[in-house]
């Protein structure tokens, strides 16, 4: 069984037991579980359930493992003959989650 969820403007294909990095979730320090309600697609025993755009009643529960930062991306700006150059770096904040349970409810 797997599902396609949407969070942080991105889509992820997940199965139970998967560990994924998603855009930083603002949960507070005490919260250790999160639920993703935007399930776009679900596959259970060769039966495909497609949402329009989401599957109503479907839910993916996950355990929060912690916050991390992605590897630094370096960008360089340059304009020829103008004595202009600039180096910019960016590190994205991410939340590491482990998928615990996928629930697909049919209408």
Spell out the blueprint of helices and strands.
Layout: E1 2-7, E2 10-15, E3 19-23, E4 33-36, E5 39-44, E6 47-50, E7 59-69, E8 73-79, E9 84-90, E10 93-103
Antiparallel strand pairs: 1-2, 1-5, 3-10, 4-7, 5-6, 7-10, 8-9
Give a brief rundown of this model.
The protein is mainly β and 107 residues long. It has strands at 2-7, 10-15, 19-23, 33-36, 39-44, 47-50, 59-69, 73-79, 84-90, 93-103. The chain has a four-stranded antiparallel sheet, with no helix packed on it.
**In terms of per-residue confidence, which ranges show pLDDT below 50 for 5 or more consecutive residues?**
none
Count of extended strands: 10
Q: What class, by secondary structure content?
A: mainly beta
> Counting H and I runs of at least 4 residues, what is the number of helices?
0
Mean pLDDT: 94
Protein described:
It is a single chain. This protein has 107 residues and is mostly beta strands. It has one domain (2-103). 0% of the residues lie in helices and 63% in strands. The chain is built from no helices and ten strands. It has strands at residues 2-7, 10-15, 19-23, 33-36, 39-44, 47-50, 59-69, 73-79, 84-90, 93-103. The strands form three sheets. The protein has a four-stranded antiparallel beta sheet with strand order 2-1-5-6, with no helix packed on it. The radius of gyration is 19 Å and the shape is elongated. The two termini are 18 Å apart.
């Amino acid at each position: 069984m797997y599902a396609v969820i949407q969070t942080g403007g991105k889509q992820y294909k997940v199965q139970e037991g998967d560990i994924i990095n998603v855009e930083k979730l603002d949960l507070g320090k005490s919260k250790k579980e999160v639920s993703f309600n935007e399930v776009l697609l679900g596959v259970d025993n060769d039966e495909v359930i497609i949402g329009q755009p989401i599957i109503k009643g479907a839910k993916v529960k996950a355990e929060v493992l912690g916050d991390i930062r992605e590897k630094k991306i370096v960008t360089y700006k340059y304009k020829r003959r103008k004595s202009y150059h600039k180096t910019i770096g960016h590190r994205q904040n991410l939340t590491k989650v482990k998928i615990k349970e996928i629930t697909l409810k049919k209408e």
